[in-house]
Amino acid sequence: MTLASTQRWKGIAGRLLRINLSTRKIATEDIPFPWIQKYLGGRGLAARYYYEEIDPGVDPLSPENKLIFMNGIMTGVPAFGSTKSYIVAKSPLTGHYSVTNAGGYFGAHLKWAGYDGIIIEGRANSPVYISIMDGNVEIRDASSFWGMKTAEAQDAIREEVGDRRASVACIGPAGEKLSRIASVMVDHSSRRGGAFGRGGFGAIMGSKNLKGIAVLGTKGVELADPDGLRSYLKEHIKELKETTGNHTKYGTLQYVGPLYELGAYPLMNFTRTRVDDESLMRNLYAEVMRSRYLAKDVACVNCPVACGKFLEAREGPWSGARCKVEYETLWSLGPHCGVFDYNVIIAAHQLVDEYGFDGISAGYTVGFAMELYERGIIDKGFTGGINLRFGDGEAEIQLLELMGERRGVGEIFADGSVAAAERIGKDSIKYVMHVKRQEFAAYEPRAFYGIGLAYATSSRGACHNVGGWTIRDELLKPKIDRFAIRGKGLLVKTLQDVRAYIDSIALCTIPRRSLNLTDDPSPEVVNYITGAGLTGRDLVIAGERIYTIERILLNREGVTRKDDMLPPRIMYEPVPDGPAKGHRISPAMLNFMLDEYYEARGWDSNGIVKEETKRRLEII
Question: What is the rounded radius of gyration, in angstroms, for the C-alpha atoms of the chain?
Fold first, then answer.
């Protein structure tokens, strides 16, 4: 990096809480400033702590695993998109290093309380929650909250700490029962939060007898140049409105129609991309959402975009159900299961949130179960009488309830689709769309080959965010054919590095372009906050360094080229319909892209980081 100064940056607290639940010891410690210089904060800084503190052989549900919560430079500052906070831990779902993030107010309050992060270790003897009220930190009894669903628990915890402004991250019954697809829900009851969703981190909290964390901060954030920051944001507000206008109106649900039209919206466990009655899909388009189901636009802290869409079911037996719905979860709980009714999807989503599941993995798992049922691999005797066919919304909700309670057939599916396939046998694993045991998101990789490579190489298992959302580039850049394999290695590497530095300064990706934080960044907003004098090149190199240390962590946990693979359906079965009809990513095609990708990254042909790459990036 160009910055040689040892002066600490503004915009960050420079310290974290270390809480040992076994000994009930609470300590405050300084974060090594060279780590901040190299890894920025958020996802990157948390990965650096993971490197030092989590042994490769640790069981994810043992007391030795740690939850590393970490904010970044932008968390909680008065700038749009400054919402994000991160958790890094060994994932119960994948068995490897993983990372998850949430928006809302949790990270902001933690920084306003004077901390950049929390490291939680050990295991409490009985249920507890953590209360952080500015500088007053306590481990409190949570026995009366254990068993509560997420909204009820958050309200009860706020009442006990005595301040409704407190932000609460907690688990529901899924986490308590150690579901490996359990999430950590943030401010679900106040409708202003999100979820630390992917990777099963709710099960880690459950394994530690940790029901939740309540945090309230009132100290604010010291900025290097507050006047400069205000002026910069004012200059870019027009660009923000231009680039995020559809997010304000429709949220991420704006992508449903366009991606369906492109043949990139997978239906019924990636068996098709078209429905016979096109009106079914049109019922899910964003315009219908806004005109018929929208209850409220929801914004994260300090953000005028308000991309969150809080919806209400209006018809049928599920009328009155309410929750926030995103593009990914509309898909997983809807068309992936053959369900095309917002009312059913909202009801299923509310259930998922209340039990505290990752909405993508939970919905995916139900759709996977439906395909097994349709194929006769499981039957009514296996399901306990549930007619688990695609399109049956009542059956979907029944299975989700059983998964949340770990009752009956729900016990089989409560840990996600790969674990279910391993329990069922009968070659059912070949119908799971996953990489490294994490289920696919809502994009058909046979329609955008870059997404296939992104899924394969994502450092947390199949993921379009950490892995790289290639669709914009494959559509808008004329030299990048979405059905080509050449050039995808460098494209995916570039997007992954950008996302790594964005996640590490802890900026929401939606407004980042309006702040000139792209693959050729102008870091003015970061420097107004920190006074660090960073260059755009510093941010790009930091992103590459962060993604590379994540791969080093995966390498030492046994992940190599053999794990950067796609499921048989994607490699051997062509898309049967729609604009991508006939396309697949064959093993030879994937291997070509992997070779190109590894070369661009400076990894060897087996996907292991080379020593010279470690030296070039000054990893440690």
Answer: 23
Distance CA 118, CA 511 (A): 27
Q: Could you give the percent of the chain with pLDDT greater than 70?
A: 99
- The maximal CA–CA distance of the chain, rounded, in angstroms, is 68
| CA distance linking residue 4 with residue 185, whole number of Å | 40
User: Can you tell me the distance from the alpha carbon of 279 to that of 282, in angstroms, rounded to the nearest whole number?
Assistant: 5
C-alpha pair distances (Å), 418 with each of 159, 339, 563: 39, 22, 14
Contact 101, 81 (CB under 8 A): no
Phi-psi region of 18 (alpha: psi -120 to 50; beta: other; left: phi over 0): beta
Beta-bridge partners for 152: none
Domains of the chain, each with CATH number or no CATH: 15-216 (3.60.9.10), 248-425 (1.10.569.10), 439-617 (1.10.599.10)
Amino acid in position 465: N
| 438, 361 Cβ separation under 8 angstroms | yes
Report which residue type is found at 5.
S
What tens digit of pLDDT does each residue of 27-71 get? 999 999 999 999 999 999 999 999 999 999 999 999 999 999 999
Q: Is the pTM of the predicted complex or chain greater than 0.85?
A: yes
Q: What pLDDT sits at residue 208?
A: 98
Q: What is the C-alpha separation between 546 and 111, in angstroms, rounded?
A: 22
Q: Is the dihedral of CA 15, 21, 23, 24 positive or negative?
A: positive
Q: How far is CA 530 from the centre of its chain?
A: 27
Measured in whole angstroms, the distance separating CA 287 from the mean position of its chain's CA atoms is: 26
CA 103, 105, 109, 112 torsion: positive or negative? positive
